[in-house]
Amino acid sequence: MTTVTAPRRRRRGWVVVIVVVAVLAALVVAAEFAARAIVPQVVRSQLIENLGLPADQAIDVEIPGLVLPQLAVGSIAQMSVSADDVDVEGISGDVRVDIQDAPVRGGDWSSARAVVVLDEDQVRTILSRVDGFPVDAFRLAPPEVALDTELNLFGAAIPLGVRLSAAAEDGDLVLSPTTFRLGDVDVSADALREQVGPLVGSFAQSWPVCLAQYLPRALTLTGVVVEERGVVATFEIDSAILRDETAQQPGSCSDAS
Predict the structure, then answer these.
(1) Are the C-beta atoms of residues 246 and 127 closer than 8 Å to each other?
(2) Which of 47, 86, 124, 154 has minimal CB crowding within 10 Å?
């Protein structure tokens, strides 16, 4: 009697291979899920520790694509970090940071940008610390900001409205008058300066507003726009913030000037 065993052994071998592949795939998937859970927690804890944020600060970390291969090569191609109501020096704002090529084991990223949104109340708080700024007259009027007050001319109180553009200049937020409304008449800032400049006083001047003192020194203001949600400020971030304690500390107005 003849016994045929080779086909059974081959079938058994394929079964073993399939089982091994399935187990390895399951391990890879499990490792990916673990990495995707652990990496955001590590990023969050580092931010809280290095920037002195509250321990219960809610921080969302997003990493597109598979995490494990990026960890293996030592660089995360894209990472987004966002947090609402981040409080620094008594000023609260919503922050989003987008990082390109974030290093895993030391080094520099290729670029990083932060967008900070300050609502009207927070902007008013900042402006209240600017010497001489008429903060009680301030309000947002996208795409500009506005001052609504009165101008005393020859004993008469005339309603004065001022529109100011917002821009980033040499690391400062600068508010510059663009148009004036005297009573019911609209006048350009240049025309008003020429005609009654001394009478409107400080309303005709530009106002530099230092934001550096509220943010880590590694951040440099590069852009400002005024939207319905508030003043939206864009900052470039030096990767020195990853390792230099000085870069992690709030800056000063002398840094921006």
Answers:
(1) no
(2) 154
